[in-house]
Amino acid sequence: MKKNGxxxxxxxxxxxxxxxxxxxxxxxKSPGASKPTLTVTVITPxxxxxxxxxxxNGSLAAWQEAIIGAEAHxxxxxxxxxxVGDRVQRGDVLATLQADTLRAELAQAEAALAEATASAQxxxxxxxxxxxxxxxxxxxxxxxxxxxxADASAQARVQSARAMVQLQTVRLSQTQVRAPDAGVISxxxxxxxxxxxxxxxxxxxxxxxxxxxxxxxxxxxIGRIQVGAPVQLKAASGQLLQGKVRMVAPSVDAQTxxxxxxxxxxxxxxxxxxxxxAQGEIALGQSQALTVPQAAVVVRDxxxxxxxxxxxxxxxxxKVQTGRQSGDRVEVSNGLKADARVVASGGAFLNHGDTxxxxxxPTAQAASAxxxxx
Length: 374
Description:
Blueprint: H1 2-25, E1 38-43, E2 46-62, E3 65-69, E4 75-80, E5 87-88, E6 93-97, H2 100-136, H3 141-173, E7 176-178, E8 183-188, E9 195-196, E10 201-207, E11 211-218, E12 230-235, E13 240-248, E14 258-264, E15 277-293, E16 298-300, E17 303-309, E18 315-326, E19 329-334, E20 342-343, E21 356-360
Parallel strand pairs: 1-21
Antiparallel strand pairs: 1-20, 2-11, 2-15, 3-10, 4-6, 4-9, 5-8, 6-7, 8-10, 11-14, 12-13, 12-15, 13-14, 15-19, 16-17, 17-18, 18-19
Helix pairs in contact: 2-3
């Protein structure tokens, strides 16, 4: 029993000595010390002039669309020369109608004019003789008056016959349906062999091939939009178009409370077509804004944050509101002071309260700093 007791105390002494040696080799950590988690670069926000814009949606539509119909009545279409998508010039023949009957009526009217002209010439000669004889005393005043009346009546018949010739000439010209202006055929109802009445729609024409964007804008925004303001939009086909505001509608839709802004587009619109949906931005001018690099903004849970560094080298997480973008910079409209020391990049690796090591503090002009490294 004594031997066992002596051995137990000896072993306990050796364990205590070993623990003391280990404790002596390890440094004692200070409870207030904190190692930097990242090495970062900080910048200060920069004031820049950014464009003010209004985003809007709307449809592309024909600038002006002409309905081309038949003017003659009861004639058959004998030829159709254009189809949808064709470009035409002013005066081009789009379709022809049967003209045989009208040519015959014109010939009849011309013959009646010739007959009336001959009769008028005879009446004129009679009136001239009557004046001469009346001066010589062979014709009474009553007889002279009758002769002069016959002459005037003959001249009136000439004018009536001439008007009939003009009328038949116009009706004959109406057998050729012509384009009222240059443009693009957008619809065609004309069919060879069909008999049309006066006013029957045969074609639709987008005048000059021009289309416009009809953007829907909230009523509160229309006072900021000026005629002639530049507009950039993207059609559903993917094509980017540049235009200018032509007019702001004088009234607001009572249901949607939106107003229509009419934007002129260039005639050569490529793949953009009337009826397409388009998204665009209407420029309103320039204004000053506080900006930071896009890399300095971290999006978490649908909110935007930036990280600033205090004098104690600790990180503060600030919730901010972002706005317009220009190149690699983004506007911070709320939540950030102009003299803040903002982490230029790498904020996704930081948390509020982290201690960091700042290696450089470039000026606001050198805002594009390298990413933070471990």
